[in-house]
Amino acid sequence: MTQYCDGSQVAVGATSCPSGAPHVGYPSGALAGIWYDNSAASPSQASGKQLAAEAVKAAGHFGNTTQASNRYAQYVILSPTGTHPDGFNTPGGGFCAWHDYNGDTTLSGGGAAPSPYGDIAFTNMPYVADLGASCGANFVSNSLDGYSIVGGHEYAETVTDQNPAGGWVNNTGSSFTGQENGDECAWISSGQGAAALVAFSTGSFAMQSTWSNDTNRCDISHPIVSGSGSGGTPTANFTYSASALTVSFTDTSTDSGGTIGSHAWTFGDGRTSSATNPTHTYAASGTYSVTETVTDSSNGSTSSKTSAVTVSASGGTPTANFTYTISSLTVSFTDTSTDSGGSIGMHSWNFGDGSTSTAANPSHTYASAGTYSVSETVYDSVNNRSSTKTVSITVTASTSSQLIVNGGFETGSTAPWALTAGVLCSNSGCPGETAHRGSWFAWLDGYGLTHTDTATQSVSIPAGKTTATLAFYLHIDTQEVGSIAYDTLRVQVLNSSGTVLATLATYSNVNAASGYSLHSLNMNAYIGQTVQIRFYGHEDWSLATSFVIDDVTLTVQ
User: Fold this and answer.
1) Radius of gyration of the chain measured on its C-alpha atoms
2) I need a labelling partner for 167 at 20 to 30 A (CA). Which of 36, 344, 348, 431 fits?
3) CATH numbers and ranges of domains, the chain
4) pLDDT tens profile 414-428
5) What is the pTM of this model?
6) Would you say 213 and 5 are in contact if contact means Cβ atoms under 8 Å apart?
């Protein structure tokens, strides 16, 4: 049965099988046992998944409960007459038998059948006599010819591929190139390779012929390919050429007295190959220890050669580029450089005032207004090629100004504030509260009875400005408890007649906390106007709340 040795390495006329070619030894003692599973009636239309599950059940029955014990086991499931397993003997079910394994996700009835024993190979033999001549009845001598012909056909395929999904294939150059071996010589009724009665110890049975690489034809009887041969002595050798990170290897090994059956390469970076002349691309530059091991096709003798292979990335061509935004004396730079064929490894900035940076996207603040020549140089990460871009950048100082007079109350007098009596305080004169900075502050309320205090100043905000920001430090002490705002401080904008234009913010006893907090309020709506800024504090009839204000500013730009 010479189809057990197959492949392009097996020449026509070969009587031995090189180890490099697919090879399965001649089977002996093939029938291991017979089991009748009478636990349930056979399904009338068993699906492929049901048949696979039955094979798994049989493996458990025969004690083959490991992957290793099932590696060379085949379970043949015989279906009774009148049934239609996997569509047998139904319209469109034009087959006589088939083989597969439980893990095939395309099995009818729901795909793969789970197995605790590893992969399970099986053959389904329907009751072929139900199809009569379509499945071999009287093909050679009697109505039962189909059993031995179909059984032998499936056996020849499955013993050479115990995990079939496409079956053992043949590429010897016959008309069935690339097909399962059993199909090479199926249903030949006369002439060379015709099915015939073959004598066994138990009688003569109809069998189909099998393919012979020796005669390059279908033969009903032929010597068995043994896979033997004395082999030779291999000597590993190779050459290589490197282009950047890619290396092409050429095998130049020899085998005195034999032929090389396999190649095993290790590339020194954890990757391997079994190709004769592989090409490998490394992830990074460096020197790698590459080994090729060759094995004689017959006797298994090996030889190895190791060489140090150095690769280096070629890098690319960088082009420097950047954008920037200006805010007063501060410039924020954004790198937009590119590197064709590589990657940028370093940035070098010169800001034109003696300052430098190696950040990708730096920000720089100049000491004074002026025009500065800014350059960025970028370098390729591998070959250190560089590119520079230079731009002239003009920065101007901010024209901001502060409009509140005596905002920290440090003159010790109320002017130009309009303050209710008792609001102006000093650290020494008003025990219990202190200034945020300096010695003076404004203390509104804090009496524990119905009371109102105010602090007001008139300001003219020049036209042509873009921003106006009121800022102040506020500290709140209270005897109130809970989350209800009993006592409040309103920050208001009034026109010159005293009409309230807006309340910018409201604070209360609920906001009480230790220390001062800085508050900033937007007054852009009043640019170009003369307005009054008023702090309006009001207490209810019990429990004191103090609103302490200091360092008031109104900054415009």
Assistant:
1) 48
2) 36
3) 2-219 (no CATH), 233-311 (2.60.40.10), 317-395 (2.60.40.10), 402-556 (2.60.120.260)
4) 999 999 999 999 999
5) 0.39
6) yes
